[in-house]
Amino acid sequence: MEYVRAFLCGGIFCIIGQLLIDRTPLTPAKILVGYVTAGVILSGVGLYQPLADWGGAGATVPLTGFGHLLAKGVRKAVAEKGLAGALTGGVTAAAGGITAAIFFGFLVAVLFKAKPKR
Fold first, then answer.
1. Which of 1, 13, 38, 87 lies 20 to 30 angstroms, CA to CA, from 67?
2. Phi and psi at residue 24, to the nearest 5°
3. What residue spans define the domains of the chain?
4. What tens digit of pLDDT does each residue of 77-105 get?
5. 113 or 12, which is more confident?
6. This prediction's pTM
7. Got the DSSP string for the chain?
8. Cα–Cα distance between 96 and 59 in angstroms, integer?
9. Is the dihedral of CA 18, 26, 87, 95 positive or negative?
């Protein structure tokens, strides 16, 4: 049942994104930023954690989950370090994912030769 909930949660995020692409003048970049921002806001008001508990990877893997991770990191760092934690908490919490993205992006760039589109 965990897989079904993850599929439903992630699928709903995808449907919303596709509808925004198809029916609004928003660019994909603006939609992605909106998803991260929505994750931060929903986490800040306490609504994202119950969604993450229910949807599992369907809620934590998409960009809204990244926003949630940033908000959790800031909240924890502010509790531990005070106001300075607001500047460092998000980056510290997301450091593993950011590092992996940079490393694997570099690895793919080294192993494969880019070809122009035709």
1. 1
2. -130, 160
3. 2-111
4. 999 999 988 999 998 999 998 899 999 99
5. 12
6. 0.80
7. -HHHHHHHHHHHHHHHHHHHHHHSS--HHHHHHHHHHHHHHHHHTT-HHHHHHHHTHHHHSSHHHHHHHHHHHHHHHHHHHGGGHHHHHHHHHHHHHHHHHHHHHHHHHHHS------
8. 18
9. positive
Which single residue is written with the structure tokens 């570099």?
A: 106
Instruction: Check if the beta carbon of residue 35 is closer than 8 Å to that of residue 43.
Output: no
Question: What's the Cα-to-Cα distance from 42 to each of 73, 89, 111, rounded to whole Å?
Answer: 14, 18, 39
Buried b (16+ CB within 10 A) or exposed e, 19-37: ebeeeeeeeeeebeebbbe
